[in-house]
Structures are given as C-alpha cells and as structure tokens.
Fold this protein.
Amino acid sequence: MKAKLIAIAAAAMVGMTMAVPAALASPEDDLKAFREYFKKRFPNVPFEDFANGVYAIDPAAREQWEAIEEFPPYEINIEKGKELFHKPFKNGKTMASCFPGYKKGIKQNYPYFDTKSGKVKTLELEINECREKNGEKPLPWGKGPIADISAYLTYLSRGHKTDVKIPNKAAEAEYEKGKHFFYAKRGQLNLACADCHVYYAGHHIRADLLSPALGHTTHFPVYRSKWGGLGTLHRRYAGCNKQVRAKPFPKQGEEYRALEYFHTYMSNGLPINGPGARK
Ligand code: HEC
C-alpha cells in the first residue's frame, strides 16, 4: 500500500506537470479548464453529480452510501447546531444577529473576499467572529460545536448553487495563493492535492478510490465513520496534508482559507448538499 503511494508520487513527478494550468490564466479560464478536464475524464458523470464526491464515480459504494443517507448520522449534529445557533449569548443576542439571511441559505456564498479587511472569510471563521463580537469565547476549529453550527447553516442552504465571487485584484491574489497551494508538491511523498484529486482521481490508493476535486466542497462539514463524528473542510485538509507526511497548516489560517477560496470557486455552479456522510 505504501508502494502504491510511492508509485503515484513517482508517476506524478514524471508525466503530470504539464497539466498544471498556466499561472496567468484568469479564474474564469481556470474554472472552464477544470470542468472540461473532469468532463473528459468521467464522461458518464452528469455535472451536478460531482457534488456527491467519490460516490459519483463508484456505483458499488454509492448504494451503501445512499442507504446511510436515509438515516443520516449527521442528523443529530444539525439539531445540536440549530440549538447553539439560537441559544442566546450572555448579552441576550443570538448568532442569527450575525447571519441575517441564514433562513434562505448562505453557505453557497462562502468563502468570500471581504474587501474591508482584505481577508478571505469562511463560514467557520465568521461563526467565531460572531461569538467574539458578542463577548463569547471562540470555539475550537475542526470539530465539535463549530462543525455542528456549520452543518445547520449548510443544511439550510441545500440546493443553492455554489457561487463564489472574485471581486477584485486583491481577491484574485488570494485565489492565486490557493491555486498555488493546490498544485504545489509537498511532504515526504512530494504530492500535490492535484496529483491525487485531479490526475489520479478515479484510481485507488489503499482501500480508497480517489475522488475528483470538482465537487469536493459542496458537502462539508462531513460526518466520517473514521472520525466517528463531524469535521470541517479544514480538518480534512489537515488529514490530506498528513497523508503525504507534510505538516498540516493551522485550521482557518491564511493558507487553508486561500485554498478553500480556490477549491470552492472550482465547484461554482454545483449545488450545496452538505452536511455529508463519508467512510
Ligand atoms: C496521497 C493522495 C492524496 C493527496 C495528495 C491529497 N488527498 Fe485528499 N483525499 C485522499 C483520499 C484517499 C481521500 C478519501 C477518498 C476520497 O474521497 O477521495 C481524500 C479525501 C479528500 C476530501 C474529502 C472528499 C469528500 O467528498 O468527502 C477532500 C476535500 C480532499 N481530500 C482534499 C484534498 C486537498 C485540498 C489536498 C491538498 C492539500 C488533498 N486532498 C491531498 C488522498 C489525497
């Protein structure tokens, strides 16, 4: 199994570099090329179905997954998230005061570039900013209550199409940072996100079939059997960094927020269907 990873690493070093998109391409060009790549790679998968991650390309596993989704393991997390979201802070306000549009669904617009602060804002970042603004302690990133609240807001956003915008040059610079992160080799195995989730999507490593990066972000936070609970996208990023024996970056730090910005932009047009369930 280690051999397989190393074989991927070796093959990735030789033939795959030419598929890295040109640094000067605009985000729109990147998006078009990204979609085209996956359309060619998986011609039988309808565009919308990429929102189902690996189950879009694995009919056998899909059946089991659909059975799981009938009694979703994350249901209780949505309930907990709802409670927390509506529980008054010490000052009497609730989180709803920070997310006025939440009932209609807001997840499809995250992450976004905040022109005032010059920062990429993710939903989890704003959940904690809301708490701090109201005199409460921030929640730990990655899992637990923050993932529950995020699951509740994501659930209310189901069906809306991912719609990440890149409003100006400063935003484009963050997008470029994320893109660079996605295509950069790292760790002892010297593998990029793109090696596993673009060039080798549809191949096995260990017991896993590698999912296409198109549609990756639509279903987070995700309940993973391996985690025995719910986790955020940044928890998953850290896990994938560790798989190639690279040191993970801090959750909600600049690097992962830029990565999320690029990564989610690449799924523009796909419906939000989180929270999700995975092995
Ligand atoms: C050595 C190969 C490898 C590399 C490199 C890698 N991943 Fe993964 N990743 C996996 C495997 C295996 C899984 C679990 C099966 C699947 O869904 O692809 C996974 C799952 C994921 C998922 C969850 C998909 C879902 O539908 O739940 C996301 C998101 C993800 N990876 C993002 C990334 C990002 C971003 C990077 C770069 C920081 C990265 N991965 C690097 C192997 C890799």
User: Anything to note?
Assistant: Residues 14-18 have pLDDT under 50 and may be disordered. Residues 5, 53-54, 191, 193, 195-197, 205, 208, 210-211, 216, 219, 222, 236-237, 240-241, 243-244, 259, 263, 278 surround heme C (CB under 6 Å). The radius of gyration is 18 Å. Residues 8 and 54 are 19 Å apart (CA to CA).
